[in-house]
Amino acid sequence: MNNIPASFELVSSPYGHAPLRRPHSVRRTSTLDTSWPDGREGDLYIAGRCRDLVSNEDIDHPHIAREDHMSATLGWDRVIHSIENDRLDLSVLVGARGGGHLRKLLNASIHAERVDGSPLYLLLDDISGVSLVSGWAWSRWAADGETPKSPFANMEERRALMENICTGFTTGSSALTVETGPKNNPQIVPLPNPLDAFSWHQLPEVKTVGFRRARRIDVWREDDKLVFDVGFQDSASDPDLGRVALHEYHVTGYANSNTGTLEEIVANPHVLPFPECPGAIANIQGLVSLPLNEMRDQVIKLLPGTRGCTHLNDMLRAMAEIPILVAALDA
């Protein structure tokens, strides 16, 4: 059950720039930027990039431990038409559908990448979520009087497909009654910290309709702890505001350095589309005492449906790579 106060208000407090890097830490940043080269009726193009950056005592001279790039083209039905990476042949994914058991196919076809916690695996795993929500970007560019493109023909269809899929869409929630969609989309500042030239990998300049999913994972050691600071943001370009957010979370905590088991976790919502969305946060304490490297499976098992938030779950699942990231400090 979700304990959502009747007076719960929309969360609208963007996190801001990425924090400054710490000495002896690893930072993973990833982005999937989407665009529609042939217009709103054309295919969705996704350009993904992920970088693992190691900062030692001299944080002004970090080094790249690993990085990956990928690109993919999908139809509005979320079916993959083409997909490329310079390391692997990903043609087995062509014809698969984002959200249609794509993650099972990834696990079966490139399982070694998952075990290795590679930047590429994170990018590919995010195709499902990005292909689901990226169309929202068009609502920021709709002309006066124009109805934004939507995957739902009417509210009855929306309700049938989305009801109880997550906390935000629990039966009776405002998400199922607001036909025009979320209005809580505050303006945000760029992800890179202006005081740190290495805070993010290079991001494309976007001047037309575009959506971006961005992640940041910072991890370091303190005594017998693995300490982590994680950020997640879904945003879109905006003709008037530059860029606005749809989802944003910040998660901190630590795990036992010897066993890799989670010992403390705190999630803070910064931007969410509906008042009911934060209700899932209380349930994440059920992850405490579990091994971090099992998070991709355990989050799905323990936080299904209305116990979880789709985007918070995606954020938590990626914490499975924290033990692999921190190992880069010893390389």
Overview of this structure, please?
The protein has 331 residues and is α+β, with helices and mostly antiparallel strands. It has one domain. Helices cover 17% and strands 27% of the residues. It has eight helices and eight strands; from the N terminus they run ββββαααααββββααα. The chain has helices at 102-109, 111-115, 119-125, 127-133, 155-162, 295-302, 310-317, 322-327, and strands at 25-35, 44-55, 63-74, 80-84, 211-222, 225-238, 242-256, 262-271. The chain has an eight-stranded antiparallel beta sheet. Strand 2 and strand 3 (63-74) form a beta hairpin. 42% of the residues are buried. Residues 1-7 and 147-153 have low confidence and may be disordered.
Lay out the secondary structure:
Elements: E1 25-35, E2 44-55, E3 63-74, E4 80-84, H1 102-109, H2 111-115, H3 119-125, H4 127-133, H5 155-162, E5 211-222, E6 225-238, E7 242-256, E8 262-271, H6 295-302, H7 310-317, H8 322-327
Antiparallel strand pairs: 1-2, 1-5, 2-3, 3-4, 5-6, 6-7, 7-8
Biggest sheet statistics: 8 strands, antiparallel
Question: What distance lies between the first and last C-alpha atoms, to the nearest angstrom?
Answer: 45 Å
Low-confidence sequence ranges: 1-7, 147-153
Write the H/E string, N to C: EEEEHHHHHEEEEHHH
